[in-house]
């Protein structure tokens, strides 16, 4: 296998908001953590002179001769504060390469790739070609950071491909600096996808572990953070994050003296979570997290962002003594349940079965997955087809 | 019919806590209101020389010759700050009249009667006799003030019987003063029954309408209070009020910065309720009460005093757009649902049917029933048997 044939498996975790969703909009502290569920990116360098972008999760498979992927304008024009502000003629060129990608999520996925490609590309031989394929074990649009996870992978792939960072960046002494670089470009990709993201999602996906954050301040890694077992339930009830956020705002305006203390209480739940990781024994920690999860959910319900499906998940898990809260925007979407170490596998299986019977998707995973990672795949058989067909355990065992 | 044959129907409403249960223990404002569900007391004066106390709800039917109901000690000894502090020899005499009333609630019902009887009795001819029969449409031990309602009726009956107040006290110019007197003795009876009651329950039962209260302060009638339709659901799940109160205290101790703002929020919910009655139009009022009911329940849930049965009631009523909160101690017990004027009868029937299918008892009634009342029954046929067998509508039509 030559250098140009190398295959790289890049992966980045999803994220989940542990505490403080909605309250964070009103400058309260929130805590988010990475997940065991990840997005995987298979990067194959070859000598085809072609670039193939294969994103089966959003039904994209585009191939361009690399000789055609060139801009008529100065590349420096891409260096704007927000990718939306690039010159109109570049946007038009991007659109011309887009093909028949009519759906907005397809368009934005391809655009984020093209944008980073032109920002990061360096000179290569004429025969140089590559294929990028991705696959995610994260549900899309469920508030679990699937786009940030994708953005982190794409950013890493292009940084590695054009030799801005070494493949072994996680083993490097300069790891933190490399991760900062990945995160900076992942944020750019997130801007292309989401407009004005907070930067939290990509930070969690890139660095892994858990972060606390308050609007307008820097993210702070959680001291003493420990991995925890988690059951995620996707109710698959669609909802509008914007409408839910607006609803809380309207309630706060109508009942300020009722809502403001609720937001303060949530602020203190997030603070307590940070303290619990810093100082608690694993048992105390589990107990406290259960208490905080339960209280935070009730407060979110008081804010009006729960949903009958989420309440049903809580009733089902509560029967087994498992504490659950909504995570993210609410109004449907996902619920997270903390699984204590002393909850046996049979119980967790039974809970998951009962939830599945209601038509919900269940994911057993860990809170606090490793951040973005890249490994060289030595075996030629581990190609794109393998990526698309391998089960989750196999992917995880190769990726981290 | 002679004067000594007169029959009087006395009645007093139950009470429901609208907002602020549990928080009130921590000096937050609470709001309680009377109910359309009442306790009825049938007082018959006769010339049997006997006193009959007939309380079928607690399975009591005792008859004493009035000549035997006399104390060996000075009656002034009854004038203590708390009925528990009366001399031991009086207690022993009370016990000797008790008969085979082994259950604590039976004992306390009879004791409260005997205590008030000796405090209030005046000289009467030797032939003087009377029968007191009671019947309640309130569920017992469900946090709906059944004992305070009973205490208010007994207090009124004995005050009327011994001519301390006129039967027509509600039409009198001195009504307020008479109600104060009734309330003072109703509180004494509540002390016999409950030990250390707050005095809220009997105040609501005696005065009717709605009151706000904060521990250590005087009760304040709600300005502009309007009657509202209510659905009460008794889950019949037994619970210990003391254990629930202690649980909230323990949570407050463990998570003060989380729980204190929740209690503040509840305080402001009660305040907002008072303001809403003072200033709101009926439609705004209904909307606001629904919002406050919903938020207050979620906050009580956050305090840990809900129960799966109460959550089920909320899920069922929510399907019909009806807002529900637990009322009283929680952990089971009763839930109250606000029924807006624009909710049609069919919907309310359907909700009640669904709740009954779960095994719960449903009561459709009004918030803000009239306080204690007494009417002379002109018709001889309206005797104790009538009282025990009449339906709720018939009793209500005679009593108020």
Automatic annotation (TrEMBL), chains A, B:
GO cellular component: cytosol
Primary subcellular site in the record, as a coarse category: cytoplasm
Protein EC: 2.7.1.36
Compartments, as annotated in UniProt: Cytoplasm
Domain GHMP kinase N-terminal residue range list: 125-209
GO terms under biological process: ergosterol biosynthetic process; isopentenyl diphosphate biosynthetic process, mevalonate pathway
Catalytic activity: (R)-mevalonate + ATP = (R)-5-phosphomevalonate + ADP + H(+)
GO molecular function, one term: ATP binding
Pathway: Isoprenoid biosynthesis; isopentenyl diphosphate biosynthesis via mevalonate pathway; isopentenyl diphosphate from (R)-mevalonate: step 1/3
Keywords: ATP-binding, Cytoplasm, Kinase, Lipid biosynthesis, Lipid metabolism, Magnesium, Metal-binding, Nucleotide-binding, Steroid biosynthesis, Steroid metabolism, Sterol biosynthesis, Sterol metabolism, Transferase
PROSITE patterns, per database record: GHMP_KINASES_ATP
All residue ranges annotated as the GHMP kinase C-terminal domain in the record: 286-344
SUPFAM superfamilies reported in the protein's UniProt record: GHMP Kinase, C-terminal domain, Ribosomal protein S5 domain 2-like
Function summary: Mevalonate kinase; part of the second module of ergosterol biosynthesis pathway that includes the middle steps of the pathway. The second module is carried out in the vacuole and involves the formation of farnesyl diphosphate, which is also an important intermediate in the biosynthesis of ubiquinone, dolichol, heme and prenylated proteins.
PANTHER family for the chain: MEVALONATE KINASE (PTHR43290:SF2)
Family: Belongs to the GHMP kinase family. Mevalonate kinase subfamily.
Listed name of the protein: Mevalonate kinase
């Amino acid at each position: 296998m030559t250098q140009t044939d190398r295959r790289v498996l890049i992966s980045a975790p999803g994220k989940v908001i542990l505490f403080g969703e909605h309250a964070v909009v009103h400058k309260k502290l929130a805590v988010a953590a990475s997940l065991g569920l990840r997005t995987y990116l298979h990067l194959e360098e070859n000598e085809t002179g072609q670039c193939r972008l294969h994103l089966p999760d959003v039904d994209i498979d585009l191939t361009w001769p690399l000789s055609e992927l060139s801009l008529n304008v100065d590349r420096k024009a891409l260096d704007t504060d927000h990718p939306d502000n690039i010159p109109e003629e570049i946007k038009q060129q991007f659109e011309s390469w887009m093909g028949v990608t009519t759906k907005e999520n397809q368009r934005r996925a391809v655009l984020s790739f093209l944008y980073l490609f032109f920002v990061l590309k360096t000179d290569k031989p004429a025969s140089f070609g590559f294929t990028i394929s991705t696959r995610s074990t994260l549900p899309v649009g469920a508030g679990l950071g699937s786009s940030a996870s994708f953005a982190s992978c794409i950013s890493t792939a292009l940084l590695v491909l054009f030799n801005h960072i070494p493949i072994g960046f996680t083993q490097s002494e300069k790891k933190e600096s490399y991760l900062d670089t990945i995160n900076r470009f992942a944020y750019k990709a997130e801007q292309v996808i989401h407009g004005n993201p907070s930067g939290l999602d990509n930070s969690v996906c890139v660095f892994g572990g858990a972060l606390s954050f308050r609007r307008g301040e820097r993210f702070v890694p959680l001291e003493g953070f420990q991995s925890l077992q988690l059951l995620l339930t996707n109710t698959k009830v669609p909802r509008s994050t914007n409408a839910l956020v607006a609803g809380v705002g309207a309630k706060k305006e109508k009942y300020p003296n009722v809502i403001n203390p609720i937001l303060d209480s949530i602020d203190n739940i997030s603070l307590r979570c940070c303290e619990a990781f810093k100082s608690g024994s694993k048992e105390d920690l589990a107990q406290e997290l259960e208490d905080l999860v339960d209280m935070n959910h009730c407060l979110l319900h008081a804010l009006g962002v729960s949903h009958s499906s989420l309440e049903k998940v809580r009733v089902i898990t509560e029967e087994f003594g498992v504490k659950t809260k909504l995570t993210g925007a609410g109004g449907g979407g996902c619920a997270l349940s903390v699984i204590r170490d002393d909850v046996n596998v049979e119980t967790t299986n039974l809970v998951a079965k009962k939830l599945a019977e209601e038509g919900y998707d269940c994911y057993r995973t860990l809170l606090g997955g490793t951040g973005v990672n890249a490994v060289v795949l030595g075996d030629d058989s581990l190609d794109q087809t393998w990526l698309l067909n391998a089960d989750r355990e196999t992917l995880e065992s190769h990726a981290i």
